[in-house]
Amino acid sequence: MKITLKLFATLTDYLPESSRYTNIVELEVLESTTIGQIIETHQLPSKLVHLVLVNGKYIEPEKRASYSLIEGDVLAIWPPIAGG
């Protein structure tokens, strides 16, 4: 099945080079793939996975390891961001 992965800020470094400018990559994944598996596959450091949305809906940290994605989902992940 196909999903869209969007990584923001410093996490774009974990995308294929061709996707870093747009921060979006289309992925072909197995049915029942979880957010946790996507994070693991892309080797995203857990300390950098802060805000996680699926189709614009916030997914709480304790649900991410077991939350199964479905065809067409858009998974967006932001690191913690500090500013002034």
Compose a concise summary of this entry:
It contains one helix and five strands; from the N terminus they run ββαβββ.
What does this structure look like?
This protein is mostly beta strands and 84 residues long. It has a single domain (2-78), classed as Beta-grasp domain (Ubiquitin-like (UB roll), Roll), CATH 3.10.20. The chain is built from 1 helix and 5 strands. It has one helix spanning 35-41; strands spanning 2-7, 24-28, 51-54, 57-58, 74-78. Strands 2-1-5-3-4 form a 5-stranded mixed β-sheet, with no helix packed on it. The longest helix is centred in the middle third of the chain and has 7 residues, at 35-41. The chain is globular, with a radius of gyration of 12 Å. The N and C termini lie far apart (41 Å). The mean pLDDT is 94.
Strand content: 25-35%
Total discrete domains = 1
For the record, what CATH class applies? Alpha Beta
Q: Helix/strand/pairing class, anyone?
A: mainly beta
Q: Give the second-level CATH assignment, the architecture.
A: Roll
CATH homologous superfamily identity? Beta-grasp domain
Give a topology summary:
Blueprint: E1 2-7, E2 24-28, H1 35-41, E3 51-54, E4 57-58, E5 74-78
Parallel strand pairs: 1-5
Antiparallel strand pairs: 1-2, 3-4, 3-5
Could you name the key traits of this structure?
84 residues, Ubiquitin-like (UB roll), 26% strand, globular
